[in-house]
Amino acid sequence: MAGVLGKIRRWLDPEEVRRVGTTPDYRFSLANERTFLAWIRTGLALVAGGLATAQFLPPLPIAHLREVISVALLLLGGAVAVRAVDRWARTERAMRLGRDLPSSRFPALLAILVGLGAALLVVAVLVQAFR
User: Fold this and answer.
1) Residue 64: inside a domain
2) 120 is a domain residue
């Protein structure tokens, strides 16, 4: 639990990041921030897609599929947002300490989940079309 609280404290306290290592070239910090913002936009797009699915998609031929898709998109959007801030903090810390940038499986996992979701939607659309 202390490890999780320490991470959250690093996310919320900008001075915490500055207490370690040396200041990197500002261009790298700005690039890290732009990457963070791109992840946040992705999370917001997933949340918007989840809300749009819940509100505007007609009922699908498979019972509760619309709700499952909506909740999955909302949860995925939230996970992307949380992951974005964690990635930003870990990358900033690594740059300040002169370490290798942290690796992550999250982009691959996100791509696989989005691909599977798209395939599920294709099946639902085809079932609806041939009814």
Assistant:
1) yes
2) yes
Length in residues, the chain? 131
Q: What is the pLDDT of residue 1?
A: 67
How far is Cα 96 from Cα 131, in angstroms, rounded to an integer? 59
Distance CA 84, CA 39 (A): 6
Q: Into how many domains does the chain fold?
A: 1
- Give residues with Cβ within 8 angstroms of 4, minimum separation 6: none
Show Cβ contacts of residue 96 under 8 Å, excluding neighbours closer than 6 positions.
17, 18, 20, 21, 22, 23, 24
- Full residue range of the structural domain in which residue 42 is found: 27-129
pLDDT at 12 over 90: no
The verdict on residue 98 lying in a domain is yes
Residue 71 has a CB neighbour count (10 Å cut-off) of 14
| Cut 0.85: pTM above it | no
Cα–Cα distance for residue pair 89/69, rounded to 1 Å: 30
